[in-house]
Design brief:
Blueprint: H1 14-27, H2 32-49, H3 58-70, H4 76-93, H5 118-126, H6 131-143, H7 147-151, E1 158-159, E2 164-167, E3 176-179, H8 182-195, H9 216-230, H10 238-251, H11 256-263, H12 268-271, H13 273-277, H14 279-284
Antiparallel strand pairs: 1-2, 2-3
Helix pairs in contact: 2-4, 3-4, 5-6, 5-9, 6-8, 6-10
């Protein structure tokens, strides 16, 4: 898939394979992040064996899968994503069969993220290095937006009349509306007046090109630095604030169906994660043992 690889396959040049796969992905309206990941995975697979990927088969895929686990130490979920990319390439691009028995998917694992408490979120916001970085963190927590969704918000997406934020081009190509926090609106207006950014289309324009949105790495970096300054021992990243948004809503009594809509989850089972994370609700749920009437006397040793 890369021009640097010695292919030895004149009939199907590597650039042509890449173009075919890209067309198949775009025809199915895959998200840009998914397209990039799939293309890079197949390129990496071909680079590993120094051979055009259309000349590789199940034996090489199994060897590649083992290497991802053993040498690169990737998680089961990451390996599944790599296999999904290869599976798409062989089935959709090359029109070949894919035998699950030859290349079994590793079992998907569920890792519960370590959630910040409300107090820790407040510490994080106060520890932001600049007012601009603080606004980014506030917006993540107030809206539950994904990193890329926040980066691509436009000024016109802030509807102060209806007090909603329009999040467009979401995962799965489905737009959604989330609540607009009055505190966030006040902060956004103050921030906008201070930086005189009325000429920009983007709510958070790039510091280098006003006609482009902020880079997602800038948002990630703001999270990391604020966590360090706040002295938080937990790993903090943009998506964690989305988890905090949903968990704190559930702890406050919000309905799971409402949270599902706010997060843009297609399946309710994805939202059920926050039932496990809601410590306040778990602590408020009594153990069935506590409902029993027991004799406090210790059992007779005899």
């Amino acid at each position: 898939m890369s021009a640097e690889i010695e292919l030895g396959h004149k009939e199907v040049p590597v650039t042509h394979l890449r173009k075919l796969m890209l067309e198949e992905l775009q025809l199915r309206d895959y998200a840009q992040n998914t397209i990039r990941h799939y293309i890079r995975t197949v390129e990496d697979f071909a680079r590993r064996f120094r051979c055009s990927p259309d000349r590789l088969g199940p034996r090489q895929i199994r060897e590649y899968q083992a290497e991802l686990f053993q040498k690169r130490k990737l998680s089961a979920n990451s390996v599944r994503q790599h296999l999904a990319a290869l599976r798409f390439f062989y089935i959709k691009t090359l029109r070949r069969t894919w035998n699950l028995a030859d290349t079994p998917y590793p079992k998907k694992t569920l890792h519960l993220p370590t959630i910040l408490s409300r107090e820790e979120v407040a510490q994080l916001l106060h520890a932001a290095r600049t007012p601009g970085e603080r606004i980014l963190l506030m917006a993540l927590y107030a809206s539950g937006a994904r990193n890329a969704e926040l980066a691509h918000l436009k000024v016109s997406d802030i509807d102060s009349q209806r007090m909603v934020v329009h999040i467009r081009g979401c995962k799965g190509r489905k737009d959604r509306d989330v609540m607009l926090s009055p505190k966030l609106l006040v902060a956004l207006r103050a921030h906008w007046r201070y930086y005189h950014r009325k000429s920009s289309t983007w709510l958070f324009p790039s510091n280098y090109r006003k006609d482009r949105p902020i880079d997602t790495k800038t948002i990630w970096y703001a999270c990391r630095k604020a966590a360090q300054r706040a002295g938080l021992q937990k790993r903090v990243y943009p998506h964690l604030l989305r988890h905090c948004f949903a968990t704190h809503l559930y702890e406050a009594g919000a309905d799971l169906r409402a949270i599902q809509v706010l997060l843009g989850h297609e399946n309710l089972k994805d939202t059920l994660l926050y039932v496990h994370l809601a410590i306040q609700r778990l602590n408020a749920t009594a153990s069935p043992l506590d409902s029993l009437t027991l004799n406090d006397k210790p059992p007779d040793e005899n």
